[in-house]
Amino acid sequence: xxxxxxxxxxxxxxxxxxxxxxxxxxxxxxxxxxxxxxxxxxxxxxxxxxxxxxxxxxxxxxxxxxxxxxxxxxxxxxxxxxxxxxxxxxxxxxxxxxxxxxxxxxxxxxxxxxxxxxxxxxxxxxxxxxxxxxxxxxxxxxxxxxxxxxxxxxxxxxxxxxxxxxxxxxxxxxxxxxxxxxxxxxxxxxxxxxxxxxxxxxxxxxxxxxxxxxxxxxxxxxxxxxxxxxxxxxxxxxxxxxxxxxxxxxxxxxxxxxxxxxxxxxxxxxxxxxxxxxxxxxxxxxxxxxxxxxxxxxxxxxxxxxxxxxxxxxxxxxxxxxxxxxxxxxxxxxxx
Amino acid sequence: xxxxxxxxxxxxxxxxxxxxxxxxxxxxxxxxxxxxxxxxxxxxxxxxxxxxxxxxxxxxxxxxxxxxxxxxxxxxxxxxxxxxxxxxxxxxxxxxxxxxxxxxxxxxxxxxxxxxxxxxxxxxxxxxxxxxxxxxxxxxxxxxxxxxxxxxxxxxxxxxxxxxxxxxxxxxxxxxxxxxxxxxxxxxxxxxxxxxxxxxxxxxxxxxxxxxxxxxxxxxxxxxxxxxxxxxxxxxxxxxxxxxxxxxxxxxxxxxxxxxxxxxxxxxxxxxxxxxxxxxxxxxxxxxxxxxxxxxxxxxxxxxxxxxxxxxxxxxxxxxxxxxxxxxxxxxxxxx
Amino acid sequence: xxxxxxxxxxxxxxxxxxxxxxxxxxxxxxxxxxxxxxxxxxxxxxxxxxxxxxxxxxxxxxxxxxxxxxxxxxxxxxxxxxxxxxxxxxxxxxxxxxxxxxxxxxxxxxxxxxxxxxxxxxxxxxxxxxxxxxxxxxxxxxxxxxxxxxxxxxxxxxxxxxxxxxxxxxxxxxxxxxxxxxxxxxxxxxxxxxxxxxxxxxxxxxxxxxxxxxxxxxxxxxxxxxxxxxxxxxxxxxxxxxxxxxxxxxxxxxxxxxxxxxxxxxxxxxxxxxxxxxxxxxxxxxxxxxxxxxxxxxxxxxxxxxxxxxxxxxxxxxxxxxxxxxxxxxxxxxxx
Amino acid sequence: xxxxxxxxxxxxxxxxxxxxxxxxxxxxxxxxxxxxxxxxxxxxxxxxxxxxxxxxxxxxxxxxxxxxxxxxxxxxxxxxxxxxxxxxxxxxxxxxxxxxxxxxxxxxxxxxxxxxxxxxxxxxxxxxxxxxxxxxxxxxxxxxxxxxxxxxxxxxxxxxxxxxxxxxxxxxxxxxxxxxxxxxxxxxxxxxxxxxxxxxxxxxxxxxxxxxxxxxxxxxxxxxxxxxxxxxxxxxxxxxxxxxxxxxxxxxxxxxxxxxxxxxxxxxxxxxxxxxxxxxxxxxxxxxxxxxxxxxxxxxxxxxxxxxxxxxxxxxxxxxxxxxxxxxxxxxxxxx
Lengths: 336, 336, 336, 336
Description:
Four copies of one chain form a homotetramer.
Chain A: E1 2-7, H1 12-22, E2 27-33, H2 41-44, E3 56-57, H3 61-67, E4 70-73, H4 79-89, E5 93-96, H5 106-113, E6 127-128, H6 131-134, E7 143-145, H7 149-163, E8 172-178, H8 193-196, E9 201-202, H9 210-222, E10 228-234, E11 241-247, H10 255-265, E12 272-274, H11 281-284, E13 290-297, E14 300-307, H12 311-326
Helix pairs in contact in A: 1-12, 7-9
């Protein structure tokens, strides 16, 4: 039995984490923290009514250490790097869902996030928690940087074809579409129902923070410099990411060879489903699956990938990382 | 040509007012005010891009008098009663969309709105701007209290049957459902897309502020004390109100006699459509219509009424009032 | 291990059944039937890709007996009563999700469903599968009539107050709102996205088929004749039912005493959550919970209840019945 | 006054046409036809209740000639080319909203639509009704081929940059997203609410019928062979198209020069709004506007364009064409 605490319990990723961890036979949730709220978890998240008898608490690292073995960090960036070093110092293991430990380069972090990084010593060594690529590095780690949602979708779609040298690494276009829960639970004008509903738009065109993360991981994983044009869009639905990706093949390819390469790359990986059909976000909603297909259109490679931004894009992969870190079977609590 | 100013231009009712008034052949919009924003109206409301060349301004009553003949007040309650007296003092006509001048009784206002009313002298004399009931009192008025959205739906559905003494005035149940735009454009947790979408709930059960307004107007209009049980609900859609109303008949009635009474009551009224079919909010979306039908189920009278909360429930009826106040044909700019 | 077959595998209730049963440690799904389709289950229901390696088949009762111990019937009414007797004759246990065995009285069935019942001999003896009321009668049964979705919501909300004689059994108003999945997966005009989205309407006012079912079960359960006015509405969301119920108290009651009676009635029942808050459909979406609260408004009792029409309203309660029939713990596979 | 008939009155484009034409001061709608339905237009389209007193009729070309001067054809492809020649023969003017007269080449038509064209003699001479490009050719024509919705979005976005030789004409990627009303009013599984809601997917990847139409018109308009990779997606909203378009610049460009070229190209065109902001489908919903912006991202040109698929993408531009054909001011009935 592993005792688990969740840091920053009011948001959607915390809610999904709790839902998943309540299914985990070897986990006991012992604390859920918040700096702003103190209510019962069943009042803050009514879907948890009767399922978890905890109040939100404001706990110090020392208090957390007394209660938990592993901490899931659901804090915003900057806030996360302020507390993670203290958690590590008291001996806790941390799965950090923020962006603070994803980028290797402090200068790149500062450029995209507008804050100087205050824990630069850990940037190079922290393992990027995308188990389909780095499963062998995750077991036993004390700190895992859980990937971004757009990032996982894009990387899972592209890694096999880059690894197989089937597509050019430069000039890849990622046209990505996300449900609104990706924007979080803090009230903002553009995510109000009456603004986002019956609406479709792009945002952060050319400057979304997942861009350097996608490029860094794909560059590392494929051993060649990768450059992408990344355009995120907001879809009037709760959850789901659909990425339509356009790349130039390095040689003549067809749909069959693309799918074979992707299937072979993910052989034995339980959460990637390579499909002949066009994937839909609905088919992966609430699950830890990423569904991928590919087509060739007028000589261009078109890869399409979907996942649930809150599960495989955040809290599901966090538990997948947790399982690998702690030595539980990778799929525990994640097939439902 | 009447010069018109809109007070409080950032919200949804202001946006709809502008859209309607741009169609009005005898109106010139000369000012749109805001205390918090100063941007161009085409930036604040992108749908107005290229349609109205005005910036949001913070204008005094004197400045407004120099620019306009009539002011539409889209301020929140309390804010409205602070400025309306000044507007009237400088000679402006005011169509006030807030709740501040709807209730006749200052004590009732204070009880439901939690603020002492500061312009009590006008409460008795202000005309309630529901033209289907009070069209003869509206022309020439300097101040009109524009009705609430739930209120108009409920009153329009019930007034004919109460007037005809076909239903008991006590114990009427109004089960009302509204799209989310009714909650306004200020970011709040419960109206975030990811909260309101794929969700249905009730709110303000037994204590919604439109309750005393419904009762006051129906009591006045029917000459008998009316009491309602009013339950509002939030529907995951932008706009539209559907009221399902249950009342006890005073004698044996059938569907035909109910519809005849409602049809006869609204004869010659251009914006109420009495229908044999079950109304839908979609059929009135974007329009100034209120569609009504009635049924008898197990001896109970069931009245169903729909309108667009932003149009017939707010800005459309405001222009209807404006037309009557200024002597334009009632339907001007409102049939589209 | 119990071998399970699903009859009529193309619809939403079958999909949800499969999802739930895949979590059940003691169940093996051995067949999914369809008379119209023959594709792989992962193509018909892409969310099941890689999760269940079966093709849709058209199987006879004898073939089903060779493959399965228990059959879940997801056929439409009429179709169900044509095949259920054959399944029972070959010794299969049947959880029937259709309406065919819910009503005790063949004449009432014919009146509301427009077909003469062809298996009248079983109507009196078939157990109505609402475990919160009839758990002691379900174990060991060969045939269970799984309740309707509106029905379960209404009965669970009203049974405690009727049992406690706190409300009058006549004149109860049930104003119910349902997501669109309740209408099934057969393409129809009124459930097209472009019709149902941004729309709210009532339907089957005064003549919905769940009316006699609600009345029969509440009459049986409470020992007094119950009559309801039932109005269903269509909400633009996938799933969820919200029932707002108005009843006349038999004596002066307050919120506290109502909640106490409901809590006490459901003590030990794992899937009913009595709450002080207003319930929301989102809090029970994807779960087998029914959340209930109550208020007193102007002397009327207002009960509000929510459930997921596809889970607690159909496939979840079907598995709950299955567990009780087969002797598995009631909650198996249903807490997620 | 021009008498107008609408052929195929049950669909969404017919409904929008009627709504727009009811605002037209010089139009009288004299007939709405259907081969399948005979109901009153206010029953088939409840939003038209009380607005148009016509029943759906099945009328011959000769009967139509006695009633109307101009016919709007809202029939499906193939059905349209069967009747349009007869309408022209009896002297009617026709604005055809189907795809039958859009492509110049009968072989291309047959390849993409799977039917031999039966009126090939008119394919070369029929004017393509995109007024922003071909306004000078439209006046006085007897037959206008009204453009497709994706087509107009794509062409309006790309024509200025191709005309200015700012982008390469080959390898243009059009990633387009459409609301569900674009799929029409005929019930189909994939456009059911419970399928399309909370879902996002691509369809017809590499083989959508608007591809040859986009290429033909852009090739003609720009005088150079244009080739596109076109990927349509389905968005869970009623209406709106958002196209994100990626092209390779012919020389170094910046956002300013792109916007200047687009602005200059559309100078004096009332329905194209070039904007610095990212456009949103909501800002053009219900209007005849197409909003366009452009960006440069990592050396690629990214053009974004939005329009309402039922208005500027279908019925609005049809009335714009009608106005030009008949000599009315282009904007009549289209600014609202």
